[in-house]
Amino acid sequence: MSSAPSLAAAIDPRTKMPQERAELHQIDESTRVLALIFLGTSAVWLLVGTIFALIASWKLHNPEFLSTQEWLTFGRVRTAHLNTVIYGWATNAGIGVSFWLMARLSRTLLRHAGILYVSGAAWNLAVIVGTFGILRGDGQPVEWLEFPRYVTPLLFVSYALIGVWGIITFRFRRGEHTYVSQWYLLAALFWFPWLYSIAQIMLVFAPTVGVIQALTNWWFAHNVLGLWFTPIGIAASYYFIPKVLGKPIHSYHLSVVGFWALAFFYNWAGVHHLIGGPIPVWVQSAGIVASLMMVIPVIVTAINHHLTVIGSFQQVWNSPTLRFIVFGAMNYTLASLLGSAMALRSVNSVTHFTHFTVGHAHHGMYSFFTMVMFGSIYYMLPRLLRKEWPSAFLINVHFWGTAAGITLYVVALSIGGWIQGMQMNDVKNYPDFLQIMVATKPWLFARTIAGLMIAVGHIAFVVSFVWILIKKRTVEETSPTLFNTPPTLSLKTS
Amino acid sequence: MEWFAYGLLALIGLLMSASAVYAFFWAQKTGEFRDLDQQARSIFDETEPEGVVTDRFPGRATRASARPQHAAAASKHS
Amino acid sequence: MNNGPLLFLGIFFTIAFSWSGIVLTNLVQQTEAGATQPLFDKDTEKVVPAPMTGDAKQGQQVYAELGCVYCHSQQVRNSLSRDGGTSVDVERNYGRRPNVARDYIQDGRIFLGTMRTGPDLRNVGQRLPSVDWHMQHLYNPQITSKDSIMPPFPFLFEEREIVGEPSPKALRLTGDWAPPPGYEVVPTARAEALVAYLLSLRTDYDLPEAPKSVE
Known about the structure:
The complex is a heterotrimer of chains A (494), B (78) and C (215). With 494 residues, chain A is mostly helical. Chain A has one domain (23-470): Cytochrome C Oxidase, Chain A (Up-down Bundle). Chain A has helices at 7-11, 24-59, 74-105, 113-136, 152-171, 180-205, 212-245, 252-265, 281-293, 295-309, 313-318, 320-343, 345-351, 355-385, 392-425, 433-439, 441-470. Chain A starts with 6 loop residues before the first helix and ends in a 24-residue tail after the last helix. Chain B contains four helices and no strands. Chain B has helices at residues 2-29, 36-40, 61-64, 68-77. The N and C termini of chain B lie far apart (69 Å). In chain C, the strands form two sheets. In chain C, strands 1-2 form a two-stranded antiparallel sheet. Chain C has a two-stranded antiparallel ribbon with strand order 3-4. Chain C has two domains: 1-33; 39-200, Cytochrome Bc1 Complex, Chain D, domain 2, CATH 1.10.760.10. By secondary structure, chain C is mostly helical. The N and C termini of chain C lie far apart (69 Å). Chains in contact: A-B, A-C, B-C. Chains A and C meet through helix 3, helix 5, helix 6, helix 7 and helix 8 of A and helix 1 and helix 2 of C.
């Protein structure tokens, strides 16, 4: 590419910035291979993670299922599910979407993407080896950091490169303003390696003594959600909602307030996983206060997202991208407010240690983040490949399967978990733990049904994904940015 | 020795907080917080202009045009 | 328009702040207060909490490998029951007193856990002290706890032909669970280590900073 300077010049802060802004189709073109690598692998991991999820879910009401092999025992399969969806699906998808967004918002071409292809390959190799390691029993017994210690340095190095490259792309921005999505993306790209390296050192390579491990663990695990996935999800929503609707977000002022409120409060909130535990009361209180303060950025983001959408529901419904993203944004509001409520001591004493928490984790990771990623992919791929999605039917199956499935999932586990929590606190009427455990079975079965619905959606998604990759480009599909002036639009007005 | 590390960390923390405050005032001074309405429009340009819906289900262009103001907006820009 | 570095510093600061607040201050505070050191109990002339035995350590590794922590917590909470007074967890016989930070300093890797798909195990050695019970329960939870959703761990056991005298370690299985005649089910070294670990889980001492044990 002639417009890209040498590698040294690309990262040297004294390099003179290119004068003209790149055209959108040029930018899309420069990110094409990179985005396809990350999004393609994420789709594969999504399927792998779904299979692990279904096995684990089935085991929870039929414990004899696949129980003779050690590598298929619940503790391994569940962990393989968590790590493949977090580091395989969600992180790959997040990186693909982030780079495309970052390049577009910075109005600059992606430079020296070759380095990113290598780190993308290294990242996925590490996830593959790590998943086998978990199934073999080499995993670290630290929640959300289970990958065996022999792959974590590789994960860290490949990620650090990716993060640095995102920041460099931002440095070459030609936009007149730093759009709010860029703030979120920049923060996410930077926060994650910091979180990951500190957690690795303090938990795996030089573990601290006693309960500090638990504090570090939850500081990390909650921040992966709050400071890595959430900012990417919000950045994508802040871009796609106004972009697709063709109208600016409701209040740009609020979005800036929301960013800093999130940055300050979210990273303290993780301690709420340890309320009532053997840790100092003041830390618990700080965690509770931060969790409650999260209401501010959530409300701010909610106002912006929802008030932008109001009055345009017809367009939301007609756009695959917005169907998923608006569903995600609605669930971000809902899941976050519920999360704040769950940090209250009175609520926490019921929901802590129950399936309610599992439901909540999926509410955040799936109903919000994953749905936003699906929506983003529906917008990106046609522009990267210059082809239309092949089948509206498959998109519909994907949307209904996942939206209905995850709603059933969250509702079933919330109700089941709440009942479980009430019974666990009621020693007089439920003295026998087994009785409580048996009572959760129907809800766990409902979870498997929900999982099957989601799996159908995922299959439709992956079929669409492969189909658009291999199908031939038709004559009309030549416009650099598709859909902006569809030929039939101005003719047929009813 | 441990205390040296903690002291260093505290110092770094102090520097960081000072720089965050400075960053805020600097951004204020250089106009990053001015003309916010214009900033919100920075995601639109000539190829994907404001007022045009840029995504719909494949093969459903006719249904998207059911709302007249968008048809109008689209024809204005094309 | 070059606010990049400053934005960057602000972003860095927020996370450094929470890390110092949650992790670092606690580390300093606990080290300073001596909460990471065991105590010597003059009455019983023992160090509390006692260091783990070698068997228990190996068992803890099995506990980790099988992912027990995803369904079992190891913490007796201090939260009050609705009637006031004792903790619900103590009432449920999860332990005789709520746990404090010092209880975990000998554990190496700690398994506080965040889920109670199954019951809390911090004092399972006190509550269920029988080796036989644990062996049968691990071989197949349905033997001791019908309708449990805990997975069986047959791979921790070996079904083998009886050669000469039956092994004294063989599981006493009856009815449908019994192996074919002439065969016996014996625990592997991993199963024995795991059970040793489970039996070692007991908070049977008092600490000055912890609430008093109930009888």
